[in-house]
Design a protein that fits this description.
single chain, about 260 residues, alpha/beta, 7-stranded parallel sheet, 7 strands, about 45% helix, globular
Length: about 260
């Protein structure tokens, strides 16, 4: 299937590894020009080299990188100084640390909100009007299944990402955006094989007295698929949501969790 995004410009945040890299790779393979952003330059350079060398990437698809903290005004200014008019934006920031809610002070909450709610909102504000003027735009926010099935250890993430979910539910349905082929959706990963999952499972293992591998294996077995997801399949879902075929998917929360969430709605 031709996704119809060849030549489009895509901004992918947190793209040096994990799910962000999977999204960047999938978009690049469809011929989109990708600008990848992350804080660490060495990992970002390695990611860019992998994308450039990917035999499935069309030769004329560009790969550019910006080493910046996208959660800051300075970081966002650095990104938009390189390229201003994006057709596709994938927002993604590392989740806040797990823990006991009694231990989180105001600074911890503000940091979580900055990274996982306010930064995506700022990126939406900065790009949607240009998308509407050009008649095409796709924004995908990588959030978490925790907004539908909160985990007690992830209270900071539960709160910040749920706030973003509520915001998107309203703004995605603004007629001057949706009627101009600009869609905003959230992609909710469940247990994927990432560094973030391992960090979360380390805390769970500590509390249960298990080794990390025992905790990881138990987590796999409770998933209907009996496995964790991988970045390639996550990226493919993201690429479809960014495609010309997804113009009628507006303001949705798309679960990618192997069937772990048991609810009907």
């Amino acid at each position: 299937m031709d996704l119809g995004i060849s030549g489009k410009w895509a901004l992918v945040c947190g793209a040096s590894k994990g799910l962000g890299f999977g999204c960047a790779q999938a978009l690049s393979r469809e011929g989109a020009n990708v600008v990848i952003v992350a804080r660490g330059l060495p990992a970002l350079q390695e990611a860019a080299a992998k994308l450039q060398a990917d035999p499935q990437k069309p030769r004329d698809a560009k790969v550019e990188l910006v080493a910046a903290d996208i959660t800051t005004e300075e970081g966002r200014a650095k990104v938009f100084a390189m390229h201003k008019d994006f057709d596709i934006v994938v927002t993604n920031a590392g989740g806040p640390p797990p823990g006991n809610f009694r231990d989180w002070n105001r600074d911890a909450w503000v940091a979580a909100l900055d990274a996982n709610m306010l930064t995506p909102i700022e990126l939406i504000k900065a790009t949607v009007d240009g998308m509407a003027a050009r008649g095409f735009g796709r924004i995908v926010n990588i959030t978490s299944t925790a907004v539908k099935a909160p985990l007690s250890l992830l209270g900071l993430s539960n709160g910040a990402r749920s706030g973003l979910t509520g915001f998107v539910a309203g703004v995605a349905r603004v007629s001057e955006l949706a009627s101009r082929n600009v869609t905003i959706n959230n992609l909710l990963p469940g247990p994927f094989e990432t560094d973030r999952l391992r960090k979360t499972m380390e805390e769970a293992a500590r509390k249960s007295g298990q080794t990390l591998e025992q905790a990881m294996d138990a987590r796999r077995k409770v998933n209907p698929t009996q496995r964790f997801g991988n970045a390639d399949e996550f990226g493919a879902i993201c690429a479809f949501l960014c495609s010309r075929h997804a113009g009628y998917i507006v303001g949705q929360n798309i679960l990618a969790d192997g069937g772990a969430y048991p609810g009907t709605f």
